[in-house]
C-alpha cells in the first residue's frame, strides 16, 4: 500500500522573516504547519542587519535562528529542504521536496524571497553585502562620509541623489548606452555628484576592503564602497505545476508575484508573503507581511471549516 503523505493545514515554502512570521501566526492559531526552507535568505551575505527596531546590528541569520527556536513551542515543523514542485489534490495540495517525502497541505504560503542578479563585472559579486550596497536604509550609515561609486542601472540617478544624504563624495558611473536627461544632470550637479561616462571593467580589493574600480580604459578610480540596484528575479519552481506567474514590478526593479490585499495569489489556495510580492520590503516589513498572510490563511481555513460544519448541521437537522 502506498504510504500516506503527511498532511498539514499549511505548508510554508521559505523560512526567511516572512515565512517564519507566517508560521508563528499559524502555530499560535493551533494550525499544523510545516516550514520548508532552503536556507538562502537574500541578506545572508551581510554580517549585520539594520532598521529592525530592537535588533539593530544583529546578524541576519541569528534573527532567523531565534525565530526558528520560538516556533518549537507552537509545534511548527521545520525542515531544511527545497520544495521542487506542488500539485493540486482533492484536499488541497501535494508538495514535493528534494530530499524528503512529499507532504500534503490544505493551503500553501510561498515566501521564497528574491534573487539578486549581478552584472558581469570582474570581482564584483564577492563584495555584495559587504561594500557593495543597494539600500541606504540597510547600510548607508555604515558608509557615511566615505567615497561612494554608484554603478550604472535604471536606478542609479535615484540612488546617487539618495546617498547624498549620507556622503558628499559620490561618483556616478554612467554607461555609454544610458542617456541622462538635462533635469537629472542638473539635479546631480546641484547635489555635488560627479558623473563619469565609463564602463567598469573590474572591482579592485577584497570583500569588505574595496580599493576602487578599474574603468574599461584601464584607469583606476579609488573608492570605499559601491552602490548598485541589481535586477531581482523570483524562483517559482517550488510551485511550478500550479501555474503561478511572475510579473514585472512597476518600478522596473525586476520580477515579483501579484497578490491581493490579503496576500492571496491568482491560484486559489496559494498565498504569497514577504519580498516575493513586494521587492521594496525590508526584513521588518517581510515579517509583518508574513504575520498578515498567516492570519489571513487561518481566517480562510476557519471560513472553510465553518461552511463544512454548517452543512453538517443542516443535514443533522434534516434527518430529525
Ligand atoms: C545584501 C543585502 C543586505 C540587506 N540588508 C538588510 C538590512 O540591513 N535590513 C533590512 O531590513 N533588510 C535588508 N535587506 C533586505 C532583506 O534581505 C529582505 O527584506 C528579506 O530577506 C526579505 O525576507 P523574505 O522572508 O521575503 O525572503 P528571504 O529572506 O530571502 O527568505 C526566503 C527563504 O526562502 C527560501 N526558499 C526559496 N525558494 C525555496 C524553495 N523552493 N524551497 C524551500 N525554500 C525556499 C530561501 O532559501 C530563503 O531562505 C538586505 C538585502 C540584501 C540583498
Descriptors for this entry?
320 residues; FAD/NAD(P)-binding domain; 2 domains; 5-stranded parallel sheet; 26% helix; 27% strand; elongated; binds flavin-adenine dinucleotide
Describe this structure in words.
The structure is a single chain. This protein has 320 residues and is of the alpha/beta class. The chain has two domains: 6-116 and 231-319, FAD/NAD(P)-binding domain (3-Layer(bba) Sandwich), CATH 3.50.50; 119-221, 3-Layer(bba) Sandwich (FAD/NAD(P)-binding domain), CATH 3.50.50. The protein contains six helices and 19 strands. Strands 1, 2, 3, 4, 5, 6 and 19 form a seven-stranded mixed beta sheet that branches. A five-stranded parallel beta sheet has the order 8-15-9-10-11. Strands 12-13-14 form a three-stranded antiparallel beta sheet, with no helix packed on it. Helix 1 (17-28) runs parallel beside helix 6. The protein is elongated. The structure holds flavin-adenine dinucleotide (FAD). The site of flavin-adenine dinucleotide (FAD) has 41 residues, from helix 1, strand 2 and helix 6.
Rounded to the nearest angstrom, the distance between the terminal CA atoms is 40 Å
Low-confidence stretches: none
* Quantity of strands, as a count: 19
Largest sheet entry: 7 strands, mixed
CATH third-tier fold name of the largest domain: FAD/NAD(P)-binding domain
What Rg is obtained from the alpha carbons, in whole angstroms?
Answer: 23 Å
**Can you tell me the CATH class of the largest domain?**
Alpha Beta
Amino acid at each position: 500500500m502506498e504510504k500516506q503523505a503527511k498532511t498539514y493545514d499549511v505548508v510554508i515554502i521559505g523560512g526567511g522573516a516572512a515565512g517564519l512570521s507566517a508560521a508563528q501566526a499559524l502555530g499560535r492559531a493551533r494550525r499544523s504547519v510545516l516550514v520548508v526552507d532552503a536556507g538562502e535568505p537574500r541578506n545572508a551575505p551581510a554580517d549585520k542587519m539594520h532598521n529592525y527596531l530592537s535588533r539593530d546590528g544583529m546578524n541576519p541569520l541569528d534573527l532567523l535562528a531565534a525565530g526558528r527556536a520560538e516556533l518549537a513551542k507552537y509545534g511548527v515543523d521545520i525542515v531544511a529542504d527545497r520544495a521542487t514542485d506542488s500539485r493540486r489534490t482533492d484536499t488541497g495540495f501535494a508538495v514535493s521536496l528534494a530530499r524528503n517525502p512529499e507532504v500534503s497541505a490544505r493551503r500553501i504560503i510561498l515566501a521564497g524571497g528574491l534573487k539578486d542578479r549581478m552584472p558581469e563585472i570582474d570581482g564584483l559579486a564577492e563584495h555584495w553585502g559587504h561594500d557593495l550596497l543597494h539600500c541606504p536604509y540597510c547600510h548607508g550609515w555604515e558608509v557615511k562620509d566615505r567615497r561612494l561609486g554608484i554603478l550604472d542601472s535604471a536606478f542609479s540617478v535615484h540612488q546617487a541623489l539618495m546617498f547624498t544624504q549620507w556622503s558628499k563624495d559620490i561618483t556616478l558611473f554612467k554607461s555609454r548606452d544610458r542617456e541622462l536627461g538635462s533635469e537629472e544632470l542638473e539635479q546631480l550637479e546641484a547635489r555635488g555628484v560627479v558623473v563619469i561616462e565609463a564602463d567598469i571593467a573590474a572591482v579592485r580589493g577584497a570583500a569588505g576592503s574595496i580599493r576602487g574600480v578599474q574603468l574599461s580604459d584601464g584607469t583606476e578610480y579609488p573608492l570605499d564602497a559601491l552602490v548598485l540596484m541589481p535586477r531581482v528575479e523570483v524562483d517559482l519552481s517550488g510551485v511550478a505545476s500550479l501555474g503561478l506567474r511572475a510579473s514585472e514590478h512597476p518600478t522596473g526593479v525586476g520580477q515579483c508575484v501579484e497578490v491581493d490585499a490579503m496576500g492571496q495569489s491568482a491560484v486559489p489556495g496559494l498565498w504569497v508573503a514577504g519580498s516575493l510580492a513586494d521587492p521594496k520590503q525590508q526584513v521588518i516589513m517581510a515579517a509583518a507581511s508574513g504575520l498578515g498572510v498567516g492570519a489571513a490563511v487561518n481566517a480562510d481555513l476557519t471560513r472553510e471549516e465553518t461552511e463544512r460544519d454548517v452543512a453538517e448541521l443542516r443535514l443533522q437537522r434534516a434527518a430529525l
